Amino acid sequence: MEHLPVEVIGNILSRLSAARDVVVASTTCQKWREACRKHLHTLSFNSNDWPVYRDLTTSQLEILITQTIFQNTGLQGLSILMDDVEEFLGSTVIAWLMYTRETLRQLFYNVRTAPNVNILEICGRQKLEMLVLGHNSVTGVEPKFQRFPCLKSLSLRYVSISALDLSLLLMSACPKIETLELVNPEIAMSDAQVTVELSSPTLKSIYAERINLEKFILEADSIQRLHMKACALEVFEVIGKGT
User: Fold this and answer.
1) CA angle centred on 82, ends 117 and 46, rounded to 5°
2) 5, 20, 54, 83: most buried, per Cβ within 10 A?
3) In this predicted structure, what is the pLDDT of residue 241?
């Protein structure tokens, strides 16, 4: 192993992805530390992965994640899934995202913060290709300033969003989206609304689970895969050539 180039070691560590394994591996020797620092592509922080997380205070956990992220350059994949952790400081999480956003291609984000962090505002206009967002709220979508020119896959899980913002996000903010996943979203409707209408010329696949609406209309010419699970919809209509 000592003869492997640091770039190859970085690729190996990127396949581990879990931060706990990367941290342990980086203590092996100086070469592995360099690989972690300069050639690591992915990092994953999951509260279920590392039992020691449960023994840390929220502040200590913030410091640990901050140190690990800031020791690396060029991260392309970042996963922060903190189901069992209390609220992080919004400013700390913003620092993580600002540090990595220019190189990120994939972001898996399930973090409770105070105040709420606007992922669209921070990561818009960057190179993100996949966004998985959980247990957060999305408000005030502004396609001009929160545009995702490269995003192809969007997953919203237990997310609070208005019908208007969902429509703007799909139709205007994500011009290249191909895959959409909606799992138990809390979709706010105005008093005059009874229908959620979504339109995308590029959308190919949609997965919907536990959606409770009166009427859902999807306009998409390229739909190849449609899967609905446990959805309480009075009317679901797909309009397009591919249906």
Assistant:
1) 130
2) 20
3) 57
